[in-house]
Amino acid sequence: MILFFVYLPVVVFSQETNISEKISEIAEEIASEENDPGSIDQFSDLLYELSQDPVRINSGDESEISRLFFLTDFQVKILADYVRTTGKILTPFEIANIPGFDRETTEMLIPFVTFVQINRSSADSTGPHQSLLSNFIIKTSARDTSLLGSQWRILTKYKITYSSISAGFTTEKDPGERYLSGNKKLPDFISGYLSFNGKGVMKQIIIGDFSARFGQGTNINTRLMGKLPLSSTGYLSGRNEIRPYTSTDENKFFRGIATQLTYKNFDLDLFFSQNQIDAAINQDPDSSGATIRSFYTTGLHNTVPGLLKKDILKESDYGVHLSANYRNIRSGIVLSGTRFSARIEPDKTAPENLYDYVGTKNDVYTLYYNATFKKSIFFGEMSVSIKNKIAAIQGISFRPASRLNLNLLYRYYAPGFVSFRGGGLSQSSSNSNEYGILWNMTFEAARYTFLSTGVDLCYYPWLRYRNSSPSMTKRYELRIKYLPSQKINLEILYSSKSSTADGVIENQIPSPEETLSRSIKCSVRYAPNESVSFITQAGYKIVQSSGGAGFLLLQDINLKKSGLPVSLWFRYAIYNTASYESGIYTWENDLLNSFSIPVMYGNGSRSYLMVSWKPSRRAELRFKYGITSSLDANNNLKNSNEFRIQAKLTL
Amino acid sequence: MYFSGTILKQLFPLQKIIVSHLLFFLSLNCLAGDPFCFKGSARETGTGGICLLDNDTWSSFKNQAALAFNHSINFGFNYENRFGIKELGTRTACLSIPYGKVSLGAIYSRFGYSDFRRELFGAACGMTLSKVISGGIQIDYITEKTISEYNNPGILTCEAGVILTIKENLKAGIHLFNPIPNSLRRSGLISELETSVVLKLNESLFAAAEIKMRMGQIMFIKTGFEYDAYRKFKVRGGFNSENNSFCFGIGYEAGPARIDIGFATHEKLGVTSSISMTFDINSINHKVHKDLRKERADINLYEAWQL
Q1: Cβ B31–A538 below 8 Å, yes or no?
Q2: What is the pLDDT of residue A98?
């Protein structure tokens, strides 16, 4: 989530394109670090939602401002207080002077806020607002006869809002899955919710599917990933919220009821959830009853073995969160519990699995705080899970000068710490077996020139996959941005990552072998006017001791003539990489509420053309056709095509 | 003499081997190598292969958007000799004609010799799209003939370019060769993408840099400059990271004609030399009119004197 802060907004040629590119950029960064499509999908959903319904910043209402989910609680509070005490904010750059905000954060807000005073109740009184979005995506490839359904990916999202009540549903069918066929004649994934936003004690109540996040997220965080950014410029402190679930990750959400109560300086969140999740069963005949070997998180049910894993485990969760504000300090406690209908019993023969969770229940207790002191923000959290295993986070965000921002973060996740629905700031997704220190800095070095840098040292005290001894990773990043005008944006990003894995086996003990991956990416955006923008990007990546080198050169041309209902996006990219490891991730403009970040590896080219047609103010159609040509070892060309179509209707 | 004759005798078989190998790889199939698209005149050879994105006729076939800056009829001839081997020579002729708001161009290029020949026919069009943006497109037809029975059929493709005039002295160019998916035709053809930046440092000095990537190969970086050394005499230099090639060249303008000579080194194979001549018809017409006017004035003067 904090990766959001990494990026400066560049007003390219239209706000919509700007948002689309920004979301894609963030998603690309996330994808290059971790293949977590659910999180990226969720992230892009939230941003698109905000762009469609910008936050009325001058309302001074904390609940309204808190829709800017990437702000911390403190920033929300400070912003609301500022509006209440000093009056309306007239320009976005006024925000930059408010304590707790910097220029980058402020510029990031611009596409998602409005300074016009709109009375929500009068706007709502005209009737319910409805939106319907459908995506159809197909990639041409050899027909796999083992798949149960067609190659199409079909996604439908519907939302209706009337006054303080909103409801919606999401259905999805992945490629190869059944759709309206089989025994149940339903899409493979269905999710829905009913939500009420109040203004009194009951701030919110959600029935159906929802996500939640409290504190730093080590206990509960199904909202956004806690992946550590390197050159983050924002504050790392967390926030509290429950929200209706509208994404397509088929396992990472709660299903039940959640409510948020508020009274004076106290907030109380309560939730209960019971959901069927995917899992793989142990085949061991000696085990007493059915036990679970592992969780199945891909969400793919397009083969018989995949379908057999669907919804076989019942997960029950409850949670209580209580927080209190006192001047510049906010503190809270979180209690949560998870119960499974079958015993989790992973294969523990391998030494790296020694600390893997075994059992049917888990409880986590958390205490957290945030405090501001002059130009510093201190934040910390400690959680205790089953067997008294600890997770702890302590950080400071310091702004000694208006042009300089410093962050320091220490985290510790003991081997064996378990939080099934947690997602604290960490390098790995498991929130276990890790400790490390992160430092980063952002500095406006000269006029129009921004420099940000970060270092992360991460240690794994116990063994892990492909590491038969304690190991560590080191990451460094340097980002230079030069923004001489709104028309031109130049950016250079250098990043380096070293990690270890088992190498040569000597005396039956594998010796650790270091892999060093370094990459440099240069991009230039030029938008001579509001109708057209050009983006050129060159990338070079070298992976020592395993992957070789990779090159990428791409050119984007985006066209949008004001007054015409049609927009065009064109890309042509040529790449050459020695292996998959040296492959380069690149974002692509894509359908609304969607993302595409293919990794370019091998020898070949990738091109696409996307057209958006808005026949009316309430409807939009998007078509995307992409071709990937790759050269094989014999210099023969192989093509794969991809076609995407989307319809969006707003009533 | 004896010494150089001996070396030549020793080198001759080596030269034959090189030619045979190069032509063998070139004739394998269309994916094997270059040159398919036009590589540039002696001016480009001298500047490391970069396109200076100005109103030079030859530049128009490196980036078709440069046609937009062409306001007179031009034609030219170019001969490139690779590594001193005549079998690897390329002969090129081009013509550009302004027509209303657009400018049209045609190019013919022939590479090889009687047993292996590759020809390119191109028709281009370029125009100014806005104050900042110029665009151009070229349709190419490429044929390849060998003495073997495995002649490649002709390939139809296209290339396109955009030039952005960011400032009066700063231009950026994008050029894409063969964006057509190979699934649409029987023979494959590699694609190329080039992006370049040209800065006019002062009235007499151009400096440019270019990034180029060709499918199946790594990325190349080119840099070069052109300097007006003395009146109409130009000096050029450059570096191309593809084969670590150092380049230099000279050019001279004599009225409507311009002659350019360029050289590019190859880290293993030797030197490629190139010569080109370009003629500006408008300048010729202008000179003819000027001469006619002068002649007419002389006649009038003579008649006046007779009277």
Answers
A1: no
A2: 77
CA–CA separation, A261 vs A240, rounded Å?
12
Contacts with A, B 212-251, CB within 8 Å: 212-219
Q: How far is CA A476 from CA A537, B145, B302, in A?
A: 21, 54, 86
Q: Is B301 exposed, middle or buried (0-12, 13-18, 19+ CB in 10 A)?
A: exposed
Cβ–Cβ below 8 Å for A551 and B213: yes
Torsion, Cα A160 A162 A163 A164, to 10 degrees, reads -50
Chain B residues with CB under 8 Å of A635 CB are 29, 31-32, 216
Partner A contacted by B172 (CB < 8 A)? yes
Residue A508 lies in a domain: no
Q: What is the secondary structure of A378-409 as a DSSP string?
A: EEEEEEE-GGG-EEEEEEEEEEEETTEEEEEE
| Optimal mutation site among B165, B166, B212, B218, interface A, most CBs of chain A within 10 A | B218
B225 membership: H or E segment, kind and range: strand B219-230
Q: Give the Cβ contact number of residue A196 at 10 Å.
A: 16
Task: For residue A631, give the nearest of B176, B192, B216 by CB distance.
Answer: B216
**What whole-number distance in Å separates Cα of residue A247 and Cα of residue A171?**
10
> Alpha helix locations (H) across chain B?
2-28, 42-46, 59-62, 281-306
Instruction: Look up the domain containing A439 and give its range.
Output: 206-444
**Is position A55 within any domain?**
no
Q: Is pLDDT of A629 > 70?
A: yes
The answer as to whether A645 is a domain residue is: no
User: Which residues of A make CB contacts under 8 Å with B?
Assistant: 488, 526, 528-529, 532, 534, 536, 538, 540, 549, 551-555, 557, 572-576, 603-605, 607, 627, 629, 631, 635-637, 639, 641
pLDDT band at A148 (very low <50, low <70, confident <90, very high): confident
**How many folded domains does chain A comprise?**
1
| Backbone phi, psi, residue A181, to 5° | -140, 180
Q: Do B162 and A534 touch (CB under 8 A)?
A: yes
pLDDT tens-digit readout, A490-539: 999 999 999 988 888 888 888 888 889 999 999 998 988 888 899 999 99
Give burial (CB, 10 Å; 0-12/13-18/19+) of B12: exposed
Token look-up 């009540």 returns A165
Cα-based angle B34, B36, B40 (whole degrees, multiple of 5): 90
Domain for residue A371, yes or no?
yes
Q: What is the DSSP letter of B5?
A: H
Is residue A1 predicted with pLDDT exceeding 70? no
Q: Which domains does chain B have, with CATH numbers?
A: 35-293 (2.40.160.60)
pLDDT of A610 reads 93
